[in-house]
Amino acid sequence: MWLYTLVKYASLAATLVAGSYACLLILLTTATFQGHVVYLHKIQVTWFKDLNTPESFGFLRNQVTPFTIETSEGGKLYAWHLLPTELYRQHESQLIAEPSGFSTDCTSRVAFKLLRHDPDARLVIHMHGAAGTVGSGYRVPNYCALSAGEPRKIHVLAFDYRGFGHSSGIPSEHGLILDAISVVEWAISTAGLPPSRILIFGQSIGTAVTLAVLEHFALESRPVVFAGAILVAPFVDVATLVATYSIAGVVPILSPLARFPRAFAYLKTFIRDKWSSQERITRYVRANEQNNEKYQVTLIHAQDDWDIPWQHTETLFQLAVEAATTDGVSRDDCFERNVTSKVDLGAAGSVVEQRTENGIIREEILRTGLHDVIMGNPVISLAVMRIFAAADPSWN
């Protein structure tokens, strides 16, 4: 009797799980639910702190200026301009004297003038990942790491995409790309920085946004190329990612269905936002090589990343190298060449770099760092300094 009861409840549990999974698949075919799953933009993760009071996140008074940037469609993007620490110290009395909080006119603030009027200033534009806001999780220590290499000169501009935090709108691939382009154009036109003094940093889904922006500007009639780009925990495309993705590395989403190629191929037709980084990095590198434009791309990934497997970075690096190669080298030959040139750093991981007359493509695979913790580590500070120094050897 007990065996019958056990089998009965086990069958019921299996039916409930199967039914719930089927419901999930049906929901994932709808644009609205899919958008919430991909972007997680309704998850704020700021622990009831006010974004207009950056001091509550550990910053100094007026070290951060909250303001908005208008998009090409008339939307409002919430943004933070972060001053590097030593520059803040040099102008501390002026900064403290200003009113704190959200600024309706950031161009009147001391921080903005320090950015615009310093010919040696550098700017890192930060493209964050899914969920949260500019003040969530490991993003705050990430900002500090980005400017740590030169705490007098490296400013950081972080912003929330449409639908995130205080930014208006609903997120989509097309929309996020327009948002990022608007932010870059603000940095160039309003803040007055030439692209050669701008580095674009992306993490997780922010890497896909970064590559879309890089491609957009590189393919203009008058190509625009920045000092460089850093991609932390990138992915090949959404379809490839969901085939292996598990929440916290434990709970699979679509990987069980990936075992059935036809069913998975059918489900992929419903993916609205494809975020094909593999195509974009190829076009970006190829355009720069053809136009003889100088460019730098650094890809960084931790092997213990539970969210996005580090092999995504390896694939993107190989595609970038293949696009940069003009001697007809096959992908297999590129892979063999990379293996032989890879530098083993022991517990720190490995590094491999491909140089052409125009570009530097660098891959750093760390042993540890998880998906987010890595953003606040010294490897990020060094990557920023390496790019700025290579872009302008006279800058120190």
Q: Which terms summarize this structure?
A:
396 residues; alpha/beta; 10-stranded mixed sheet; two-stranded antiparallel sheet; 41% helix
The averaged pLDDT comes out at 90
Helicity range of the residues? 40-55%
How far the N terminus sits from the C terminus, by CA atoms, comes to 80 Å
Radius of gyration: 22 Å
Characterize the main sheet: 10 strands, mixed
Global structural class? alpha/beta
Describe the secondary-structure layout.
Blueprint: H1 2-28, H2 31-39, E1 64-70, E2 76-82, H3 85-90, H4 92-97, H5 110-116, E3 122-127, H6 139-147, E4 154-159, H7 173-190, E5 198-203, H8 205-218, E6 228-232, H9 238-242, E7 246-247, E8 251-252, H10 261-268, H11 277-291, E9 295-302, H12 311-324, H13 331-341, E10 343-344, E11 350-355, E12 359-366, H14 378-391
Parallel strand pairs: 3-4, 3-5, 5-6, 6-9, 9-12
Antiparallel strand pairs: 1-2, 2-4, 7-8, 10-11, 11-12
Helix pairs in contact: 6-14, 7-8, 8-11, 11-12, 12-13
Q: Quick recap of the structure?
A:
The chain has helices spanning 2-28, 31-39, 85-90, 92-97, 110-116, 139-147, 173-190, 205-218, 238-242, 261-268, 277-291, 311-324, 331-341, 378-391, and strands at 64-70, 76-82, 122-127, 154-159, 198-203, 228-232, 246-247, 251-252, 295-302, 343-344, 350-355, 359-366. With 396 residues, the protein is an alpha/beta fold. Helix 7 (173-190) crosses helix 8 (205-218), helix 8 runs parallel beside helix 11 (277-291) and helix 12 crosses helix 13 (331-341).
Write a structural description.
- The protein is built from 14 helices and 12 strands.
- With 396 residues, the protein is of the alpha/beta class.
- It has a 10-stranded mixed beta sheet with strand order 1-2-4-3-5-6-9-12-11-10, with helices on both faces.
- β11 and β12 form a beta hairpin.
- α6 crosses α14 (378-391), α7 (173-190) packs across α8 (205-218) and α11 (277-291) runs parallel beside α12 (311-324).
- The longest helix has 27 residues, at 2-28.
- The termini are far apart.
- The mean pLDDT is 90.
